Here is the input.
Amino acid sequence: MPDPMTYISTRGRVPPIGFAEAVMMGMADDGGLLLPATIPEVRDRLDRWQSLEYAALACEILGLYIGDDLTPEALRALVRRSYESFDHPEVTPVREVGPVHVLELYHGPTLAFKDVALQFLGNLFEQILAETGRTLNILGATSGDTGSAAIHGVRGKTNINIFIMHPHRRVSRVQELQMTSVLDPNVHNIAIRGTFDDGQRVLKEIFTDLPFKTAYRLGAVNSVNWARVLAQIVYYFYAAFRVRERTGAAAVQVCVPTGNFGDIFAGWLALRMGAPIRRLVLATNENDILARFFRTGVYARGEVRHTLSPSMDIQVASNFERYLFFRVGEDPSVVRELIDRFTRTGRLDLPGADPVFVAGSADRNATLGAMRRYWRRQRYLPDPHTAVGLAVAESFLDPALPMVCLATAHPAKFPEAVRDALGDEVTATHERTAALFGRPTRCAVLPATREAVERFIAQTLGPVRD
Here is the structure.
């Protein structure tokens, strides 16, 4: 049986590596994504884990995948540092809101669920670099929230530079300011002329340019980095435990608003490990490539639509390849063939259905309607991404299977959408977002090409040193 702390590529052309090396590699050197060789089975531990606080539960779950690369003491210290900046003692509290249980993932420094993973990853990078004496230059692409969470996870840290690409004028004003107002010398913002998919394409092209990646010691913070997905597994267990306590139900279902498939893939892994979760409800906005796939078996690229929920304005979900690997029987040759076909034609077909998933999408009217409904009936104000999840979740309510809905961002990050939904009825505010306006900003605007971004990185970092 392979060691669960061994990591392999979905495309099968990277020798097995350890956890720390997988974290530093980010995207696999063969263009695939890294995964643990085995998924631990934990059903016999659920009763013991049920009563654990968030940080202790995180140490239990993360430790299964980290192995000897961190001592238990080092892991506990790293987890404590990662979540001490959150403004709720439970880190990811669960609230009962009408017919659903809302898992609030926005209590971190940038008010988005990405903080849960990226505070951990920033500290993990720093620890690995301190132990090895290495330096790291992070390159990321964001549809809105990953960028600011990554920046706040590594700003001012020693031996780390970060370059974040976001689609020019296609994120909310608050999201933009959370990135561009950070003026630490190790932070570099790039607005690319195009969509998030263009940024994701540039990212993958640069990471498969191995001479450049190696020379400039590039690493990833996008959900292509395994540690991002790993840290997100924890809150699925935590939420299921809290709802099980309150309702007496044996298991739950979880609705996840998603565009890049990273968050819901973490939920799928939690389910595979044995978390008391029976079903995953995948929710998309009008950019519904994932919802269409789980309804029809056809994964087909379309035009990116600009919506009220910009972090989900994605047509090519980078983490889908990880799921695809398991769906085709963990055969990397089949993965390579399917990804090549998709790259050439913009389409792949996968017969059969996965009974774990149901899926739906919510357009602008459905999103605004959910925001109005939950505010007026429950006095709970969701951001537009969370509202997409709530709108879809209502189609799959089951009295025998309590519904957990992920609240992925604070509504103060999207005041324009709140105003569209409710006018002057309510104002979405938070002291952290209010403080952003009027600050100086720094950002380069570049074409969405590998050459332009590589040139900017090289000019910023200066000559390569051996």
Summary: The domain at 94-111+227-431 is CATH 3.40.50.1100 (Rossmann fold). Residues 10 and 32 are 5 Å apart (CA to CA).
